[in-house]
Amino acid sequence: MKKLYSLIFSLALLFTFSLPTAAVTTSAQSAVLINADTLRVIYEHNMKTRLPMASTTKIMTGLLLAEQNTPQKTVTVTREMIAVEGSSMGLKAGDTVSYKDLLYGLMLASGNDAANSIAISLCGSTDEFAKLMNNKAKQIGLKNTNFVTPSGLDDENHYTTAYDLAILTACALKNDEFLKVVSTKSAKLEYSGGYVNNHNKLLKIYDGAIGVKTGFTKRSGRCLVSAAKRGNVTLIAVTLNDKNDWHDHKNLLDFGFQNSREESVSFTLPSHVRVANSNNELCIKANPIVCALSLQDDLTYDVNLPSFLFAPIKKGDKVGEVVVYCNGKSIAISNITAENSVYITEKENQIFKILNTYLNLIRSF
Length: 365
Description:
single chain, alpha+beta, 5-stranded antiparallel sheet, 11 helices, 18 strands, 29% helix, globular, disordered N terminus
């Protein structure tokens, strides 16, 4: 059973939320603000202009490491791994360092030595790791991004857009290990006993900030990707080549939260469902979902139930699902579960066995 239900919100409901009073502005060459769950663009300026990204590159490098899900695995640092200019977490040839420490050194201290160590450990070389980065970029739909290095050092073929960086960050924040690391202000490293401090000062000065990465080279200018969460609303802001990025990100995030809302979505379901091989009916339910939305977002949902349900069904069993869409994109799923148990009655069981035997005979010919 599948039916599309539109959620129509009354004008009275809409007017309970404050409407935008003025568009936010930035000093950035390129900028974007999105809702991390719906991916809706709330603000943008040249968001699809290809530009260098500096150390915001490390969002992809960190995600690929976090996805290994082996934080205690260790790497013996080689001279090749640390033969890189720029910022460093302080690795030396011969050090034994865990993936966990590398991730903290990469995302907090912005260590280019950590980036190279990750790349060579996972793929054997930085060139092969760049292929992995670009494959991941295609997989998640980044259409204007190309990676050459794991650290973000300048290269004319190493570029992205503010929009692609926002989409990448939305993907990365779904990884629990990545989120834990980028939201940490300071961490003690196991391999050295020393500390690394997060360069992202929004963690200290902005309410709800949860990361994620700074970046700078002479060619790229100041680059910043930030994320913040209040209630169930998570926003991601990106600026590229922005001399006033801390101030601009505070304004972008404030603007986003002022023009976002939370909506609790309840679902209309059949009160009872017949079960093919039982004379008892099944009661079903799907828990409401709280969605983080912009004021203009349109919600719809599909109720997906099979044409026939068969006993035995135990209370709490999943029997279908409700898929919630925002502006046509799937953003959440609520399982449809049984509220009571349904067992096969003797009469229906005999009929079912006869039909099953008959069908098996037909298949044998």
